[in-house]
Design brief:
The chain is of the alpha+beta class. It is built from 18 helices and 31 strands. The chain folds into three domains: 5-44 and 70-220, Phosphoenolpyruvate Carboxykinase, domain 1 (3-Layer(aba) Sandwich); 225-293 and 392-595, Phosphoenolpyruvate Carboxykinase, domain 3 (Alpha-Beta Complex), CATH 3.90.228; 298-384, Phosphoenolpyruvate Carboxykinase, domain 2 (Beta Complex). The structure holds guanosine-5'-triphosphate, sulfopyruvate and manganese (II) ion.
Length: 596
Amino acid sequence: MTNNRYVRTWIEDMKQLVCPADIIWIDGSEQQADLLRAEACRTGEMIKLNEDLLPGCYLHRTAVNDVARVEDRTFICTRRKEDAGTINNWMDPKECYEKLSRLFRNSYAGKPMYVIPYSMGPVGSEFSKIGIELTDSIYVVLNMLIMTRVGNDVLDALGDSPVFVKGLHATADCDPENRYICHFPEDDTIWSVNSAYGGNVLLGKKCFALRIASYLGKKEGWMAEHMLILGVEYPNGEIKYLSAAFPSACGKTNLAMLIPPESFRKKGFKVWTVGDDIAWIRIGEDGRLYAINPENGFFGVAPGTNSHSNPNALETTRRDCIFTNVCHNLENNTVWWEGLDDNPPVNAINWKGEPWDYRKYDKSDKINTSGAHPNSRFTAKAENCPCLSSEFNNPKGVPLSAIVFGGRRAKTAPLVYEARSWQHGTFVGSIMASETTAAAAGAIGVVRRDPMAMRPFIGYDAGDYFRHWLEMGKRIPTPPKIFHVNWFRTDSEGQFLWPGFGDNFRVLLWILARCEGTVDAVETPIGFLPNPEDIPSEGLEGVTEETIKDLLSVDRESWIADLENVREFYRMIGERVPCELHEELSDLEKRLQSAL
Ligand code: GTP
Ligand code: SPV
Ligand code: MN
């Protein structure tokens, strides 16, 4: 509890609105968490898994209609519509508070209100920000306990300050027709109602650490980005850090926890994980960019995670983990998901809670025939990750040598290229595109523009966001270099050309060598590409020189065709797209045309 009058007044107001039976302050203690786990098991909200095989692990299933973020029901509520921008949904704040108040009213009746004080970032770091989430869901509490730093020390750090993000969540009837995820950046407020799924309700994550934080970053001169952060350790012990923005379900967790190919491991190369989803980035005293991961755990995609693709992630989920919407293996009370191994359980319950027959699995209808939902997730503690960086809790963050953008593109984008400058790199980020995935409700596999992998997460106008990138660039004395990667290029049969996963390390080495100035590159119309022989290929199986050349080829016709779509996207964002980016676009077009 706290005597902070801003906190107390706000909670009192919210109490009047949602009418809980009781108020429970979450103190971050293991003792209290244990009581909540026991309560959740008693009501069936969670299932305790096999203590010998998965100690401290639980299974939870959300409602069948509540399995991913809902972008069409996500709103940015600024007083002036134009400040929310054209690609965000907007509602007038007053209207929104009124509309949602009707949905929140009495919604906690008979249930306790859990008060979760949490810090995004190490408690007390100058990077860090405090939030308080009110929720009626034990599942939310237990996830927040893993994903953020929760407890009384957060209230101590807050002291008498009025500066904290006020999050109100109610599961209510979980009615998709009345589901709203609303952000009031001008009030440091988030209201989420009628969902109980991950990104919609763990308000510290996308709602605060990206949508609200991106707005604060613009105001205060820093950046909140949808980026992993990792360190590459060289055989001499030196560690270089980079951050990378890929859209949802496009490989951030996998890259962040990468294990280098054997030949590199033998030489002493290692990868250390700082973060897998979100980076808060500031200019350091030495003129470089520094990044922290504001989270304290991983809310990772389960399907496809296995002992070959991502052994570190798998290991991280083997204790103290909450699994959401995976398949329940009744043979030994453990969990399973597509891509874990080749032995689907015979006696099993699918993500919907029904008996499941693995023989009926049909790749073209995954939602209805798979054991685990394609967007099923694990919530795991960062401290359980075998490759967690020793800098994870460093309040100053880690210095960035490179920023990497990447998407899921079957064609067009090459394996890797380097931007010509910070401004050109901002342009490269702004024209990113990717095939949509199961992480958000809606069609899957459709190419859409997703600038900086932030399209669903920019808390203000996208044109102003690009402007902020350009302005930051002018203020950074020693900016990192900017790159673009694509692990997902396919051949004519739709097979991935690049093995990906651990082998992506080879591309990271080229990127860092470019930052050190120790390797040459080929100048092309889109930027600098590797000489094929400079992608280290020792021990790289099944990839011929021809394939590497293919992966690095730039098809000018398809780039020119793509630029038409970029132009349309810029038009859609509207007049606040900086003229520098329009210039970059026409320069790129000229370079592509003249090379034809
Ligand atoms: P969010 O948590 O939604 O932000 O996702 P993420 O960006 O962390 O994605 P994640 O690492 O969980 O990967 C999502 C999917 O992409 C999984 O099915 C992976 O198996 C697949 N994937 C990741 N890296 C690679 C790669 O290098 N190559 C290929 N072909 N697939 C990959
Ligand atoms: C994403 O969709 O990018 C995620 C999962 O990381 S969620 O927390 O649901 O947003
Ligand atoms: Mn994400």
